[in-house]
Amino acid sequence: MTTRGIHRSLLLGACLLLVAGPVHAATSCDLSFHLTGWSAFYKTMNGWGRITCDNGQVRSVALRMKGGGVTVGRSEVSGRGDFSPVADIREVYGDYANAEAHAGIVRSSTAQVVTKGTVSLAFAGKGRGIDLGIAFGRLTIAPAATRRRHH
Question: What is the pLDDT, as a whole number, of residue 24?
């Protein structure tokens, strides 16, 4: 191979690397959470969580569930969930579609799988309250607001 051929091969290889972009390894993340809320045809729950990934990334998050259906009650639930593999923890932020059936008197529980594009979250929790019904809506996961200290 001539020097010109070697240069062409190197240039072609460099172009392919630039076009292909970086390769990201998938990481596993899980969520621990606490939600409180109520429903009377309209369902709303708010809470907080902590996402921990096996690559060392950890984030506190705010959680909000909103929706409607044939539902009534008030509950408080804590639990955990697992995300489908992601390249970076920031991929878990956003709105997930959800549908649920729930029932509880004194002891409340939930188990759901929600999805946002290619990212899914399967979670389950237990708590207390009185609730019964079927609801559809969305779960929003957002970075937790940072508190500013005034000196």
Answer: 56
